[in-house]
Each structure stands twice: as structure tokens, then as C-alpha cells.
Amino acid sequence: MRITGDGTTGGTPARSDGGPYPLHGGAAGSAHRQPASTPVGPVNDAPAPAQVGYRGPTACAAAGITYRQLDYWARTGLVEPSVRPAYGSGTQRLYSFRDVVVLKIVKRFLDTGVALQNIRTAVQHLRDRDFSDLGRMTLMSDGATVYECTSPDQVVSLLEGGQGVFGIAVGVVWRDVENALSQLHGERVDTGETLVGHNPADELAARRNRAV
């Protein structure tokens, strides 16, 4: 049974052949793999991904949002910085690469009129999935429900059923953000050092190396 972001049920049964999965209540119909907690090591003497964050203005530039949106979403808990929150006057929020990808996805969902509760569900889902899963994920929505698709066949199935009116290929958003951040400044969390032209692709490479 399909369950919308506000907890109500609909008439579309959940597929039993591996997706697409309707997201609801902060979870999807598939089993989630929680992000690994093992520390990430550096790549070619570059700072470890967990040690790099992006300040608000940089996150805004890469995600294509205003600072007012960024601030409002952080204060309301929609998208909070996972590297460092703001602690009163004089402190700077620091966002991770994943945070910036989520910011850009939220912007696209809002622009197409997806309900805020469903966006919150999608945000939690993106945070719960393994980092390596995001590049091959597509989020589809009909405005009432957000679905996760991990194959072209699942996307076609939703389109044929009239459920997939709007879709976001997370891997494409990932690359857009990656390219944008590589032209901007990052910051080392441990030293406060400014990193000019830091390439967030190192984060994915580090995680892949760790998994080997």
C-alpha cells in the first residue's frame, strides 16, 4: 500500500519486485543501510572528507539557493549542517558535501510544488542511505508521494502508472554540486584552514578506498 508523507494511505500497492519504493515516515519500503561510522582516511595527503566543511555562502552558491532559504531550513530542521551548527553570534555553520547535495534537491522539489512533509521524508531518506548509494538513485514524485528508483525500469514503471510526474537523478545533482564546489572554498574543521578549489570527489574516492 502506498503511504504518503503525511501518513495517509493511498490505493497504489507497493511493488514486491525490488521497487520503486514509496518513501514514508522517514523510511522507504526497502531496508536501509545506515552510513558507516568508520573514520575516513585521507586521499593522497588531502584532508579526510569528515574534516572538510563548507560555509553558508559557499553552500548557497553550490546549491543555487539564497542565504535566507539556507538559514530558514536550518532553523526549522529541514536541512541542518552536519559538520558544525551555529552556536550563537560569531560562529559559522559548516555543511558537508552530502548536505549541499540535499540542499539542491530540496530546492528542486520545492520549485515543483512537492509537499513539504514529503520533502522532509525524502531528506531523511537521503541522510539514511549509504553515501555510495546516492549516485545511482532517482527520486520520483507525483506531488503526493516521493518514490526511490534505482533502475531505469523502475522509472519507466512509475511513468507508465502516472505516478512519476517529476524526477531527480541524484547522481546528476551530485556532479553539479561537485563541479560547483571544486571552484569554491572549503574549510578544514580541525584547523580552520581555507581550502581553495577543494574537490569533493575526494570524499567518494576515500569511501570507495575504505570499502576495498
Structural notes for this entry:
A four-stranded antiparallel beta sheet has the order 1-5-4-6, with helices on both faces. Helix 3 crosses helix 6 (170-181). It has helices spanning 56-63, 67-75, 97-111, 116-128, 152-160, 170-181, 201-211; strands at 21-22, 52-55, 94-95, 138-141, 146-149, 166-169, 185-188, 194-196. The chain is built from seven helices and eight strands; from the N terminus they run E-E-H-H-E-H-H-E-E-H-E-H-E-E-H. The protein is α+β, with helices and mostly antiparallel strands and 212 residues long.
Cα separation of the termini: 38 Å
Query: Helix share of residues?
Result: 25-40%
Strand order, largest beta sheet: 1-5-4-6
Q: SSE order in H/E notation?
A: EEHHEHHEEHEHEEH
Uncertain runs with pLDDT below 50, 5 residues or more? 1-17, 25-48
Percentage beta strand: 5-15%
Q: Choose one word for the global shape.
A: globular
What class, by secondary structure content? alpha+beta
Integer-rounded radius of gyration? 17 Å
The main sheet comes to: 4 strands, antiparallel
Mean pLDDT: 74
**Count of DSSP helices?**
7
Count of DSSP strands: 8
